[in-house]
Specification:
The longest helix has about 30 residues, at about 25-55. This protein has eleven helices and five strands, in the order ααααααβαβαβαβαβα. About 55% of the residues lie in helices and about 10% in strands. By secondary structure, it is of the alpha/beta class.
Length: about 260
């Protein structure tokens, strides 16, 4: 059963309603959450396929299924936003429909991952913690084989006060860590030769205990659990936005930094 107080802190859920549940209601709610976690990846794939084929009927059906699951877990604002777009789906321009669906899936995926973290983090023992290894340096190491994502993150972290290093191969990252101790890691999972899971394990084996945030586009249970077991403290769902990036980083290092836009 999920912890009531921790559930109520998830911003996409109706915290007041969750906080008032008795144990029986919480048990029922827990079953609904597990059903959502299990069922969402299939509907997410259905939405993506409908977007590719531009099948508005299939898109509406799959979005409706996701919306109904959101109602069951008291993610009411997300469900209402989905309903608003479904009501206007026939008159919506293709580009606007695509943009809504992509952003909607990103938000729902992040919600699914946050819920799984509540379930799994008490039963896994990643060395992620929240403690900093070096006081006040605000040093971040970002590793991704795609230069585009590194450039995107670099642009978002410019003028924030964070001191980020950007590396595009896991082996180069491990060599860098022989002489440096970042306060936080941002790792892509899907990389050739060595994936993010293996890189995280080798980071831990080399004695680094700073929090690891994984970049991901996948909310499936086995995927999330594997990342947590490898040492993940948190996740950022692609496509990355500046707001979400700074929010997740700020949970672990220097949330008081003033952003200089």
């Amino acid at each position: 059963m999920f912890d009531r107080e921790r559930l109520a802190k998830i911003s996409e859920l109706d915290g007041d309603r969750i906080g008032q549940m008795d144990d029986g209601s919480l048990n029922s709610f827990t079953r609904a959450v597990n059903s959502f976690i299990d069922g969402y990846p299939t509907q997410e794939e259905n939405v993506k396929n409908a977007l590719k084929t531009k099948d508005r009927g299939a898109l509406a059906k799959s979005l409706s299924a996701v919306r109904d699951m959101l109602w069951q877990i008291y993610a009411e604002k997300l469900a209402e936003a989905c309903s608003d777009h479904l009501n206007a789906v026939d008159g919506t321009q293709e580009a606007d429909l695509q943009a809504f669906a992509i952003n909607f899936l990103k938000t729902v995926s992040a919600l699914s991952i946050d819920l799984q973290m509540l379930e799994y983090q008490d039963t896994t023992t990643p060395s992620s913690g929240g403690a900093k290894e070096s006081a006040g340096k605000n040093a971040i190491l970002a590793v991704d084989d795609a230069h585009f994502f590194l450039d995107t993150i670099k642009g978002m972290l410019n003028n924030t006060g964070y001191k980020a290093t950007y590396i595009n191969t896991p082996m180069a990252a491990l060599n860098y860590l022989k002489a440096h101790r970042p306060d936080l890691f941002i790792l892509d999972i899907e990389m050739p030769d060595m994936d993010g899971y293996e890189l995280a394990r080798r980071i831990r084996e080399s004695g680094h205990t700073a929090p690891i945030i994984f970049l991901t586009g996948n909310s499936k249970k086995d995927y999330v659990l594997k990342a947590l077991q490898a040492g993940a403290a948190d996740f950022i769902v692609k496509p990355v936005t500046k707001t979400e990036l700074l929010k997740r980083i700020g949970k672990y290092i220097s949330p008081e930094l003033i952003i200089k836009d």
